[in-house]
Each structure stands twice: as structure tokens, then as C-alpha cells.
Design a protein that fits this description.
alpha+beta; Aminopeptidase; Alpha-Beta Plaits; 2 domains; nine-stranded mixed β-sheet; five-stranded antiparallel β-sheet; 10 helices
Amino acid sequence: MINKDRMIKKFMEYVSIDSETHYEKEMMEYLIKELKDLGFNPETDSAGSKCNSNGNNIYFSIPGEGEPVMLSAHMDTVQPGLGIKPIIKGNIITSDGTTILGADDKSGIAIIIEALTMIKENKLRSRPIEVLFTIYEEGGLNGAKNADYSKLTAKNCIVFDTGGSLENVVVSAIAQNKIDVKVHGKAAHAGGKPEDGINALQVASRAISNMKIGRIDEETTANIGVVKGGLATNIVMPEVTLNCEARSLSDEKLEKQTNHMIDCFEEAAKYYGAKVDVDVINSYPSLKTNTDSKFVSEIVETFRSMNIEVCLTSTGGGSDGNIYASHGISPVIVSTGMYKAHTLEEYIDLDIMTSSCEFLLKYLTLK
């Protein structure tokens, strides 16, 4: 059994440390000292200098028997995450309501450290374990993108970075393309000579009216999230920018939807005699872990031994696991018990958090 009180105490310490994205240094330094005090040998990399963060990723490992497994969680939080004051309310922990809680993802860190502390202090036989705590997960997965994969040998990974019940184990996740569009029309006096102009917003409107967005199918979505343009009401709008996205579990469908959106803008520009610039960036690749693998079977059996029947599921968001998958590491994403992440109402369910840690300890240790 894990030391639940110790895990909760550590979690409350972690969320009290400011570590909004780009500013993870204090959290990194705290964890490095703690890990050294626990007898681990943490290392860092230079990821921060590559992605505008003052912190770096943390790596450490435990030797063991058999195939290694990687464990992962991230150190950064979204805003507002400064001066978090965690409050225990029965079986949950919340913030004081003026900030997020930071359970996303410091609950994952607390779970991993408690399980490994149990292994170390009780000298338990275990699998070889490799741990990666990343920076800058929120808003780009940039810690994982800039990690030093030469420090890792494991081909399977458990990412503790999702919420809800333990029954739902994520084994697939969407890929995302960001599609940034700039429509170039032509300025003219809106009252004097409007016919001399080309209204960029009218061009964009034609494109959007012909475009499939929202829920495309069970695997694919698309959205236009930001539109900016215009100088004054008496000027025919000369330029408008649109920030769009497409997501899909299928790489083929993602490409098809992206091309469809581009085609709509190009057709509209041609119709009005305008010009359009399109920039497509793949934010992260899809994640598709083989559900017939020994790794996934062992995950399922471990939960079953705890009387938990899991459902292998997919998610419409990305995580560090997407990046690990692109490096040949097969991830599953397990709940920490967090709810309402990225909001002032965020909370952690302590029963689920405890069970998540007990699952990890049971999975890692050998008879």
C-alpha cells in the first residue's frame, strides 16, 4: 500500500510552487533537490533554451528486471497559476477559487514519486523504470518535442496526464494541424470608391460558407477560432487573418480536411481577384498504441487485479504521449483523478488519485 498522506502532502507542496508555462525553473529545482534527497540521480537537458522556458526537462531512473517502462508527467501549468492555495475539502482538493489548482499535471508527478519512493524505501523488485518530467506541455508539447531521447531506452510509456475515472485508459489521440490564413484584398474608400476595393472579409466569408467545419466525422473536427482584420469603417477591409485548425485520429483524414480548407480559401480568393497566404503547421502527430501488445495487456490485467475493468479509449486532445509515439515509444495515458482542468473550479479526487498510484506501484513491482 502507498503512503496516501505523504502523497497528498507532496501534491499540495507541488501545486504551491509557481510554474506557469515558460517559468518552470523553481519547480524543476525543487524536484531535483527532492529526488536527490530520496536517493535518485536526476539529470536535466537544455530543452528550455530551445523553447523559451527558464526550466529544463528532468530525467531519472531505477534499475530493475525485464523490459524497461517509461513514466511521464509535466511540470508546467496554465494560467492563472501564481500563488495557488490548495484546500482540502473532504475527499477532494481545490484551489481557493482565484487560481487553477495545478492538478494538471502535478498530480501525475506526485503519483509517480510516491510509487517510486515506495519501491526504493522498501527495496521492492521492479521493472527497470525511466522517468521524464517535462516543461512546456501546455500550449505546444515543447518540452517533449525538445527532450533528449538518447537518455531513454524504454519502448513503452505510462503518461499520467488525464482526468476522470480510472476505467478510461487512453490508447489513441488525434493529430492536429494549425492552419493560419492571411487574405489580401484591396483597400478603397468605403463611401467614395468601394468598387475599387476588394473586401478581404468578404473573400473569407465565401471561403467559410463553402467549408466543412465543426464535427466532420467520428474521428475528425475542424474549427476557425480567431479572425482579425480591418482598419476603419470607411476603408474597404484590405486584409484579414484567420487562425484555424483541423484534428483527426486518421492522418489521411487530417490531410484531406486540411486540403479542403485550403482549397476553399484559394477558390474564394480567385473568385474575387484577391490573394491568400496559407501556413500549415503540424502541432503534433497522432497517437495509436497497439491494443494487442503485451504492454497494454499487462496494464489491463493490473487494473483487473484491482477489480477495475478498463475501457481502452481515444481523446480529442494532444499530450506529451503524441510526441513520444513519434519517437517509437508506445504510450498509454492514465487518469490521476483531476477534474475541470484549466478552470478555477479544477479539483482532484483523492480516491482516484490514490488508486492511480496503487495501480502504478502494482504494475511496476515484481512478485
